[in-house]
Amino acid sequence: MPRRGRPDKLLAAYARTGGVIQEGLDPILIQVTIPLPIPMIYAAFTDPAQIKNWLADEARVTARVGGTYHLSWKGDTPFDSPGKILKMTPDLDIGFTWFAPPAFQRLMNEPEPRTQIYVRLQESPEGIDITLEHEGWGGSDEWGEARSWHFHFWEERLERLKDYLIKAAYG
Q1: Interior/surface letters 17-32, b for 16+ CB within 10 angstroms, e for the rest
Q2: What pLDDT, in 10s, does the model give residues 68-107?
Q3: Domains of the chain, with CATH numbers?
């Protein structure tokens, strides 16, 4: 069954493409389970000092809806993602806008960030399930390349999160 977008987004897409609407790619969905308390895991998404241990080289977070979620990376491909928090329920979820690295900047960031990240925490028998959803993908081959890069990026970062938190909790 095809995904249905919001009417305002469909109209904007229609206007941008001159009347051709292309169905977007499915969101990235990645889940990891960590056997630690929810507050400890949630803090790893909202505390800049902890974010620097698994996600980004630098982080500035104003933990409220509308607040800053600015991440920076150094190294071979430096980039910034000066996002804004779109949704936030303490110890449950956080959502923010995403700015892509230089290889996908024209596609994903201009004129505004076109994708968003949503993270939800939920108890399970094995611990806390962390589900990351990265949505807002277009439907072209370029978007497919960007989605593939981001899938591997998020998969690796969530494994780093798990390793970081287990080590922080148990040494």
Answers
A1: eeeeeeebbebbebeb
A2: 999 999 988 899 999 999 999 999 999 999 999 999 999 9
A3: 25-170 (3.30.530.20)
